[in-house]
């Protein structure tokens, strides 16, 4: 297995070099040169596997044997040894047609833990066996930062800096990042929104001299390993589902940066028989507008009750566009050039029909989000966080009577109590979250200024 850039101007790389590159040196995103296809017979063999065993099976198609099996196995079992559920991502039945895949049983109570606990172990492994210096740089709309920090805090040979939008993440998300006092962690709270933070990150990774001099590595979903690790729970969810071989199965995914839903697209290309991939967004609904109209055009930023999806520029959209354009890197580059110069791109005709065959999408308003939370608490006794509520609203819109749907619970509701409290619901915080409110915070508040952020990075990385 080799990895190539969506823009076609980077020589093919192996697995570990792809991990270390993160954003491709030509500004594109790394993808496998060929997606392996899993036969129905092999899929059936996997039905009895644990999450960890399934992880090892799927990764075996992608790692090129660059990591000895015993080393990979140790990383996998260490990564998921601290999850609160033995299944890692348990499936909860809500009603006859809806299941919720709980992705929040990791250390920071969010789905990002599933990939980032492993990535922390992988980066630590690479640092040791290759003697690499690992300086991780990322931006977060809330959950990635906490999960990434938790994955690498205190690890030798690794430093991590995370940018988050000041005052635009939930209080628990902020505390999970900023109460960490390890010397290898720097939190920069940026006056701006997530897209402002992400733009600076992409510019720094595109500066190959700066990237090389400071050994920058990516931990957010521009790194293909994040995508691949998330693909595992798509397979795991489907294989846990009773009667999945008798009914059509939809998966509804809260999506802001397009990484989680793209993992589902990858699983589908690998042979997982998902009927509908449903994108749930909030009022920052660039992805819904693209699916419905074919226009991809960032709009004005809106703060919502589901802040992890308050994103107008979806980083992983380029990966999907690459496959939509039949893996034509030259055509993809023209589209991305148009997006940069004109601020929008449009697909129509046959291409739009293919988009609408690949995805359904719904942008959920704030009021509807709260209504869904209240409804399911009253009717099913199940408390949804605001992002999961958007996913459930999308399930209600797009699922037919002969279909089963899985909505992804991407975070524990305690992470977003500000929104939950608006419904009149009172919840009890898990002890690890409650304890955060007693800890001092460690962060540097900076202007949305690239030069100032660079100064902070240079001082931190040394």
From TrEMBL:
- Say which species the protein is native to: Paenibacillus rhizoplanae
What Pfam family is a match, any one? Thr_synth_N
Cofactor names from the entry are: pyridoxal 5'-phosphate
- The residues covered by the Tryptophan synthase beta chain-like PALP domain are 89-400
According to the UniProt record, what class of enzyme is this? lyase
Which GO MF terms are attached to this record?
Answer: threonine synthase activity
- The answer on whether this UniProt entry bears the keyword Lyase reads yes
Q: Which reaction does it catalyse?
A: O-phospho-L-homoserine + H2O = L-threonine + phosphate
**Name this protein carries in UniProt:** Threonine synthase
Enzyme Commission identifier(s) = 4.2.3.1
Function according to Swiss-Prot or TrEMBL: Catalyzes the gamma-elimination of phosphate from L-phosphohomoserine and the beta-addition of water to produce L-threonine.
Assigned protein family = Belongs to the threonine synthase family.
Q: Any keyword Amino-acid biosynthesis? A: yes
Protein's pathway: Amino-acid biosynthesis; L-threonine biosynthesis; L-threonine from L-aspartate: step 5/5
**Record's keyword terms, sorted:** Amino-acid biosynthesis, Lyase, Pyridoxal phosphate, Threonine biosynthesis
Domain Threonine synthase N-terminal intervals? 2-80
């Amino acid at each position: 297995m080799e990895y190539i850039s969506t823009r076609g101007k980077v020589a093919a790389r192996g697995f570990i070099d792809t991990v270390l590159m993160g954003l491709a040196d030509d500004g594109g995103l790394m993808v496998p040169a060929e997606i392996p296809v899993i036969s129905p017979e092999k899929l059936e063999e996997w039905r009895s596997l644990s999450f960890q065993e399934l992880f090892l099976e799927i990764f075996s198609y992608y790692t090129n044997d660059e990591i000895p099996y015993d080393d990979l196995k140790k990383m996998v079992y260490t990564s998921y040894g601290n999850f609160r559920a033995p299944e890692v991502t348990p499936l909860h039945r809500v009603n006859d047609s809806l299941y919720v895949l709980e992705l929040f049983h990791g250390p920071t109570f969010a789905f990002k833990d599933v990939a980032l606990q492993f990535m922390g172990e992988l980066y630590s492994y690479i640092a040791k066996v290759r003697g690499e210096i690992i300086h991780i740089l990322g931006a977060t709309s809330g959950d990635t930062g906490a999960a990434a920090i938790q994955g690498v805090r205190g690890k030798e040979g690794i430093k991590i800096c995370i940018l988050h939008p000041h005052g635009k993440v939930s209080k628990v998300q902020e505390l999970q990042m900023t109460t960490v006092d390890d010397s290898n962690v720097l939190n920069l709270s940026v006056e701006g929104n997530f897209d402002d933070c992400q733009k600076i990150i992409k510019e720094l990774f595109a500066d190959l001299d700066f990237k090389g001099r400071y050994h920058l590595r990516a931990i957010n979903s521009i790194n293909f390993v994040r995508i691949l690790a998330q693909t595992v729970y798509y397979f795991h969810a489907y294989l846990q589902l009773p009667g999945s071989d008798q009914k059509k199965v939809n998966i509804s995914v809260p999506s802001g940066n397009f990484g989680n839903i793209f993992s589902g697209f990858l699983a589908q290309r690998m042979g997982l028989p998902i009927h509908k991939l449903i994108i749930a967004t909030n009022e920052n609904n660039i992805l819904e507008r693209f699916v419905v109209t074919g226009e991809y055009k960032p709009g004005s930023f809106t703060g919502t009750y589901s802040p992890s999806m308050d994103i107008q520029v979806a980083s992983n959209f380029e990966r999907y566009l690459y496959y939509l354009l039949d893996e034509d890197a030259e055509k993809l580059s023209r589209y991305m050039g148009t997006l940069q110069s004109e601020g929008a791109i449009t697909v129509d005709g046959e291409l739009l029909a293919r988009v609408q065959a690949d995805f359904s999408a719904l942008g959920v308003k704030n009021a509807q989000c709260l209504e869904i939370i209240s409804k399911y608490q009253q009717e099913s006794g199940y408390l949804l966080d605001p992002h999961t509520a958007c996913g459930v609203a999308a399930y209600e819109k797009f699922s037919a009577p002969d279909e089963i749907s899985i909505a992804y619970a991407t975070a524990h509701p305690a992470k977003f109590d500000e929104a939950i409290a608006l419904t009149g619901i009172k919840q009890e915080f898990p002890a690890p979250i409650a304890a955060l409110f007693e800890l001092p915070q460690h962060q540097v508040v900076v202007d949305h200024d690239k030069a100032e952020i660079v100064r902070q990075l240079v001082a931190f990385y040394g």
